[in-house]
Design a protein that fits this description.
heterodimer; A: Methane Monooxygenase Hydroxylase, Chain G, domain 1; seven-stranded mixed sheet; 10 strands; B: Phenylalanyl-tRNA Synthetase, Chain B, domain 1; 5 domains
Chain lengths: ~350, ~675
């Protein structure tokens, strides 16, 4: 090959490379150009380099010198192009992608906040060895009252304070009548009737009381009640379990206090308060299982003792999520439900 | 119970600041609701639990304060001067209803001058919100709020034959009470009567006819005990509640009846003059004491978890009025005070000791022993179900279990027996125990659309109540999963199939149309019961058992709910599903040999349903048939003739242990086609 021919090819390559590299718009194009001009095996520069062998020996120094110049020029053009791209100053033509457009919404449903609260409670109590138990919502007076030490003349059995079923045969509150359970303690009775001690359960579910609905009352709500009956269960155990519960549920070191109260099925009976954000918050009722209750399910109150506590799930749920009207929970309104 | 600070201080010194007393009382059982300044007095609102009737008077509260602070209690001593006459000669009391009135006492005061009360009498009453009436009525109110014993003063001269009869009311007997409303009575109620008519509803309210007025001269003072149940039932039935009925319902101190009677006489005479006639008529002067209670010290530790020193125990019990009647090694015997009806057992004394000693003394570092506890399979299953629902974009609702007649009538796939009902309505007339969740969810969906124009896809997991075969039987309660959506029928069906998969049911659900395929929109479906479009209503079966229903809500129901898009609904019995569920998946081997997929375009009669076709295809080949996939249905009447349709499906064939050859596959396809032809007259499009 003649020197002139060789140099001419180099000139053309240099011009083409300068033009191409000067215009590359993105890193992909730059890479394509690099492979095309500077590729180690099939690059155009490599092709011309191979022709050097066919140049006259006398012309070789000139040819080689020019080859190196072009090589350097292409490298420089490449470096400049790369730098230009890296510094991102390219001006773009046409439509531009907009990755800030919103994501495609994922159409997922929502779990009811009360469900979420119940799962949370079950999880905490489960870690303390309490197993979940459930029972029927339509109950007889034995399980809802008698076995719970609520005698016939007790106001809690009043037909106006309960949802008795309209049955033809029986008088409300007396044997044979049925009612929507007013507490989940009924489940505790059912479990104890069929299980020898020790018993360590939480009972959960809907309960029904004829309260006029307002922001904090609804005639249907959920209760969680805990029961632990074994040998040597004390009120100190009760306080400890409730404190650990509070620490788990509310987080941090929560102070707890007992106030005397009265429930037919526990003795002593207490109201339980938690000190939370410098306020005493009513948590629920608790106490030591009344010996009459233990006896009614066939346990020996002299050999076993137990504690029980109960709380309204909605109240905990509302406090946790800042819900101010209990009626929202049962509205079925999707605008409410989808916030959880 | 409203307590006046000044009034309270008549019975016990109050050296402590108000706030401290409030807090101390709250922490020992008298919960502090609020305090209001009234003039130079403070009125403290205390919540008294139903077992503490003794605290429904200032003396009772003072006794608590005295016990808590170790202060002496000053109960007024009554020094009643009486005339020499004998009350027994002037009146009589016949008790014909001892079950409702175990004790009735009567005293007479003659020549009283009824008029305004002096300040020391009217002032304290006004502080706790009781308007002054006259010196007699005020005296009865004052003593009731002092000691908790309700009292009544009759105008003696207006009692027919000047005598008292305690008896059941006559059927239909009426009484105008001092609230000047007329009440119709029945024989379950106890009345105080004169020789002719009822003059008071026992323990509830006096009558207008014998009311004390400014012209009254002679008084009969009633101090009695009426049984809680009788008073409460009567008050409830008449919807007539009074401070008196409130106290009788919580039981009064049987030993205090006579003290209260003398006390009120003393106050009346002091403010209105007159003479108290000598003697008292008392139908039951002897009050039997309750049996003494033994308290073992070991039981304190066993129940409370702490030891309490013997002397402290005695101090506490004596401070609340218990009297020691004996002591032996490790135990004491106590006579409970007559005003405490709630101290009949050892555990009751344990509570008193704990309460006064202070619950803050109970430690909170006594953990219980570790014990295993596991999630119930039911909870695991429900969690999986909820996961499917949420993933399908369906949100969980919780709706009331008791529904209105209208909602109840919407849809009831499980039963055609009438729903159980409550005696009193729960909300807006709702009395029916729901037989299906679908009606509630449809109601919610409609409310969402009405309120916010949003198509709510909702599910709920709750009990439904299926009536037993007789009215008195407990209902069959079962957990149900209800779904109501605006999505495509087949989309929801896919969701339901996924529930079956996630629960590990042994077989896929079968869907049996509730309606005969040939008689479109007609028989086989009670539209009122199902509320569904007959063409799109199916029973869901699992291993032969009915586990649920799926369908398009009928146009009529959808329109009546003002829903603008078709609604698809389904309900599954979770209890039934759980008995079949396998919640722990077991790995199935994956064949490493290639599969062969063939498309089959079958021409069938319109009446042939996919379920039949699929069953026939699956039955024709063994385990090598790994999948039958529905592709599409289309119709080409010009080529196939009327009444025909084409169903395109794919079958996938594979052997677990060898490569399936083309010839093997052809043979299997031939079997499938032969079976389709034989059983369904289905022909492959050639």
């Amino acid at each position: 090959m003649s020197l002139a021919n060789f140099l001419q090819q180099l000139d053309r390559l240099e011009a083409e490379a300068a033009s191409t590299l000067g215009e590359v718009a993105d890193s992909e194009a730059l890479e394509t150009a690099r492979v095309r001009f500077m590729g180690a095996k099939k690059g155009l520069l490599k092709d011309i380099q191979k022709l050097l062998g066919s140049v006259e020996v006398a012309d070789k120094p000139a040819a080689g010198k020019r080859l190196n110049e072009v090589k350097g020029a292409i490298q420089t053009a490449f470096d400049e192009a790369k730098q230009r791209l890296d510094s991102g100053t390219t001006e773009r033509q046409g439509p531009q992608p907009d990755p800030t457009l919103p994501g495609t919404p994922l159409r997922l449903g929502h779990l009811h906040p009360v469900t979420q609260t119940i799962e949370h409670l079950k999880e905490i109590m489960g870690r303390m060895g309490f197993t979940t138990a459930e029972g029927p919502e339509v109950e007889d007076p034995w399980h809802n009252f008698v076995a719970l030490n609520i005698p016939e003349d007790h106001p809690a059995r009043d037909p106006l304070d309960n949802f008795y079923l309209a049955t033809a045969g029986a008088t409300s509150g007396l044997e044979g009548s049925r009612l929507m359970r007013s507490q989940t303690s009924t489940v505790q009775i059912r479990v104890m009737e069929t299980t020898p001690p020790p018993v360590r359960i939480i009972s959960l579910g809907r309960v029904y009381r004829p309260d006029a609905p307002d922001a904090t009352h609804f005639p249907m709500f959920h209760q969680m009640e805990g029961l632990y009956v074994a040998t040597d269960v004390t009120m100190a155990n009760l306080k400890t379990v409730l404190r650990i519960f509070a620490n788990n549920y509310l987080g941090g070191d929560v102070e707890i206090r007992f106030r005397p109260s009265f429930f037919p099925f526990t003795e002593p009976s207490v109201e339980v308060d938690f000190l939370w954000n410098d306020n005493w918050i009513e948590f629920g009722g608790a106490g030591m299982v009344d010996p009459a209750v233990l006896a009614s399910v066939g346990y020996d109150p002299e050999s076993v003792s137990g504690f029980a506590f109960g709380l309204g799930v909605e109240r905990l749920c509302m406090r946790r999520h800042g819900i101010t009207d209990i009626r929202d929970l049962f509205s079925g309104d999707l605008r409410f439900l989808k916030q959880f | 119970m409203l307590v006046s600070w000044k009034w309270l201080s008549r019975y016990v010194d109050l050296p402590m600041p108000l706030a401290e007393l409030e807090s101390r009382l709250a922490l020992s059982g008298l919960n502090h609701e609020s305090t209001e300044a009234v003039g130079d007095d403070f009125v403290i609102d205390l919540e008294v639990t139903s077992n503490r009737g003794d605290c429904l008077g200032h003396i009772g509260v003072a006794r608590e304060v005295a016990a808590l602070y170790g202060l002496p209690l000053r109960k007024p001593i009554v020094d009643l001067a009486a005339s020499g006459d004998d009350v027994n000669l002037m009146t009589s009391v016949a008790n014909e209803f001892v079950a409702a009135c175990p004790r009735y006492t009567a005293r007479l005061i003659r020549g009283v001058e009824v008029g305004p009360s002096p300040e020391w009498l009217a002032g304290p009453l006004q502080a706790v919100g009781i308007n002054s009436v006259n010196n007699v009525v005020d005296a009865t109110n004052y003593v009731m709020l002092e000691c908790g014993q309700p009292l009544h003063a009759f105008d003696f001269d207006r009692l027919s034959q000047n005598r008292i009869v305690v008896r059941p009311a006559r059927d239909g007997e009426t009484l105008e009470a001092i609230d000047h409303r007329s009440y119709t009575l029945d024989p379950s109620m106890c009345v105080i009567a004169d020789a002719d008519n009822a003059v008071a509803v026992a323990g509830v309210m006096g009558g207008a006819a014998s009311e004390v007025t400014e012209s009254t001269k002679n008084l009969l003072i009633e101090a009695a005990i009426f049984t809680p149940l009788s008073v409460r039932r009567t008050a409830r039935q008449l919807k007539l509640f009074s401070p008196s009925s409130f106290r009788f319902e919580r039981r009064v101190d049987p030993l205090q009846v006579d003290w209260a009677s003398r006390r009120v006489c003393e106050i009346i005479v002091n403010s209105g003059g007159g003479d108290v006639v000598g003697g008292v008529i008392d139908t039951a002067p002897e009050t039997p004491r309750t049996a003494p209670v033994t308290l073992r010290f070991s039981q304190l530790k066993r129940i409370l978890g702490i030891d309490i020193d013997r002397d402290e125990v005695l101090r506490i019990l004596h401070s609340i009025g218990c009297e020691s009647t004996g002591e032996a090694a490790g135990q004491i015997e106590m006579q409970s005070p007559s005003w405490r009806h709630d101290l009949g057992r050892e555990v009751d004394l344990i509570e008193e000791v704990a309460r006064i000693h202070g619950y803050d003394q109970i430690p909170e570092d006594h953990p219980i022993a570790v014990a295993p506890s596991a999630k119930r399979p039911f909870d695991v299953a429900v969690e999986k179900v909820r996961g499917v629902m949420v993933a399908a974009g369906i949100s969980e609702a919780m709706t009331p279990s008791i529904v209105t007649d209208k909602v109840d009538a919407m849809i009831s796939p499980w039963t055609d027996q009438a729903a159980l009902a409550t005696a009193v309505p729960m909300l807006e007339g709702a009395r029916k125990l729901r037989r299906s969740l679908l009606a509630s969810l449809l109601h919610s969906r409609a409310a969402n659309w009405a309120a916010a124009s949003q198509h709510a896809d909702l599910f709920e997991i709750a009990h439904i109540y299926l009536p037993g075969s007789t009215a008195d039987e407990l209902p069959s309660e079962q957990y149900s999963l209800g779904m109501v959506c605006g999505i495509d029928f087949f989309e929801l069906k896919g969701v339901i199939d996924e529930v079956a998969t996630r629960l590990g049911l042994p077989q896929r659900f079968e869907y049996a149309p509730l309606c005969d395929a040939t008689s479109i929109g007609q028989s086989g479906l009670d539209a009122a019961r199902f509320g569904m479009d007959p063409d799109w209503a199916v029973e869901i079966r699992s291993a032969g058992e009915t586990v649920g229903y799926l369908g398009m809500i009928s146009k009529r129901l959808n329109q009546s709910l003002k829903l603008t898009v078709p609604t698809v609904a389904a309900e599954l019995s979770l209890g039934s599903l759980l008995t079949q569920a396998d919640l722990v998946p077991t790995q199935q081997p994956i064949s490493s040999f290639p599969s062969i997929t063939r498309d089959l375009n079958m021409i069938v009669d319109e009446s042939v349903r996919w379920a039949s076709l699929e069953t026939v295809v699956r039955a024709a080949v063994g385990d090598e048939l790994t999948a039958v996939v529905y592709r599409e249905t289309y119709r080409a009447a010009d080529k196939d003739g009327p009444g025909k349709k084409r169903i395109l499906l794919s079958v996938e064939l594979q052997q677990p242990d060898a490569t399936l050859t083309g010839a093997d596959a052809d043979a299997m396809i031939a079997k499938i086609l032969a079976a389709c032809d034989r059983d369904l007259d289905a022909k492959l499009l050639s």
